[in-house]
Amino acid sequence: MRATESQMRSSNTLGASLAIAVAACTLGCAGTRTPGDASATRPAECREIDTSHLTEQHDKDRVALARFVGAWDFEGWYDPSGESRRSGAGMAAGVVEHDNFLLLDTANFVDQDGEREFETGSLLFSVEPGVGLVMTAWSDDSKAVHRFRGRVEAEGSRFVFEDIPIGGGRDRVAMVMRFETDDRWFAEGFRRSRGSDTLVAQYTFTRAP
């Protein structure tokens, strides 16, 4: 089924923002699947973040966001229309803002129809008491910000998001960011429609030397 203009715009924003789009599964899978895995455990190669001194879940989730701090190289693809993949590669930087926020800025080159385009985007992570994990995304071609509500899984090594609806008539979007080690993580995305999740993006982030 061909994506509507609003669906394509949503995927384009995500694609440029993380230079990705959305979702959750083992890297390299294809087809449809369900994002998130509440039973997942932290990979042995991914360090444990000590939150034993914290009593509130929102404080523990906020500390887990520190995994994104640093400089990253990334590459991958996204397919906003379901018709052709756009490959891309670039750089990202994660920094703590005002103690309580994590900002991830990206700059990437995207190949389309034999031409290379330069795009920038940003993701702002916050943990709001009574609300939980929230991600706000925007990019060069955004007409509005896109907001996602999320949760932390696998002992702070997996972050699962679903977009917050801003109106009816369009498919939902989901995203998962999954750390394999302290220096390597994956971001994958889905378009959710009629009970199935279709992979629309897949990116690998590696800590820059």
Which class in CATH terms? Answer: Mainly Beta
Percent of residues in helical segments?
10-25%
Examine the secondary-structure arrangement and name the CATH architecture: Beta Barrel
SSE succession: HHEEEEEEEEEE
Please give the number of β-strands: 10
Number of helices: 2
Radius of gyration: 16 Å
Rounded average pLDDT: 78
CATH H-level superfamily: Calycin beta-barrel core domain
How far apart are the first and last residues' alpha carbons, in Å?
A: 42 Å
Poorly predicted segments:
1-34
Proportion of residues in β-strands: over 45%
SS class:
mainly beta
Structure description:
The structure is a single chain. The chain is mainly beta and 209 residues long. It has one domain (5-25, 53-207): Beta Barrel (Lipocalin). It is 10% helix and 48% strand. The chain is built from two helices and ten strands, in the order ααββββββββββ. It has helices at 5-17, 57-64, and strands spanning 70-78, 86-97, 101-112, 115-128, 132-139, 146-153, 158-163, 172-181, 184-193, 196-207. The protein has a ten-stranded antiparallel β-barrel. β5 (132-139) and β6 (146-153) form a beta hairpin. It starts with a helix and ends with a strand. Mean pLDDT is 78; it is low at 1-34.
